Amino acid sequence: MPSLDFSPALDRPELLAAPVRAGLLGLDPALAAQVRATPIDPTLADTASFCEAYGVGMDEGANCIVVAGTRGDVTTYAACLVIGTTRLDVNGTVRKFLGARRASFAPMDDAVALTGMEYGGITPIGLPSDWVILVDPRVAALTWAIVGAGIRGAKLSVPGAVLGALPGAEVIEGLAREVPAA
Q1: How far apart are the first and last CA of the chain?
Q2: Which Pfam family is one of this chain's hits (predicted)?
């Protein structure tokens, strides 16, 4: 089993996409100092593969899902953070929060172009400043959440409280539902 070697993220700029690096530099230094980074095998960046290969629980990995909400000609984007054992309530909670008539997962090409991050590595740190970040309370309660680093070849370990305190973040009850065990 491969191992994880976390160190302060700002000491490892090669492990961060440019917007993530900029986002960390723009954070309160006390919050940024709590974010750690580790290199990973980029072929294992997807949550389920990563968790299995590195021995991390699915309930420790936070998925950052980009959602596009539309009302008329206006599209609003949001990043939603949920743990790996849950399913995002896109058409209920997210749609209503965004005031959208329709909400759906943003197309991969749009998510990559708008964030400047690699698909499978999109993270809530360094997103466009006009985006809201919706955080499931289970993520905010984690001692350490594993999220993307903006590239597929790295992961961040971030206290859930820091994720909930990011600029534009709101902790939202009912954001996700538990997925029944198979």
Answers
A1: 24
A2: tRNA_edit
Check residue 28 and give its pLDDT: 94
- Choose among 2, 1, 65, 64: nearest CA to 38: 2
Of 154, 168, 151, nearest in space to 80 by CA: 168
User: What is the three-class DSSP state of 171?
Assistant: strand
Q: What is the largest CA-CA distance in the chain?
A: 49
pLDDT interval class at 182 (50, 70, 90): low
Q: Over the Cα atoms of the chain, what is R_g?
A: 15
**DSSP type of residue 107:** P
- What does the pLDDT read at residue 100? 95
Q: What are residue 31's phi and psi, to 5 degrees? A: -75, -45
**Separation of CA 78 from chain center:** 11
CATH no. for 7-170: 3.90.960.10
For 86, residues 6+ apart whose C-beta sits below 8 A from its C-beta are 136, 138, 176, 177, 178, 179
CA–CA gap between residue 99 and residue 70 (Å, rounded): 8
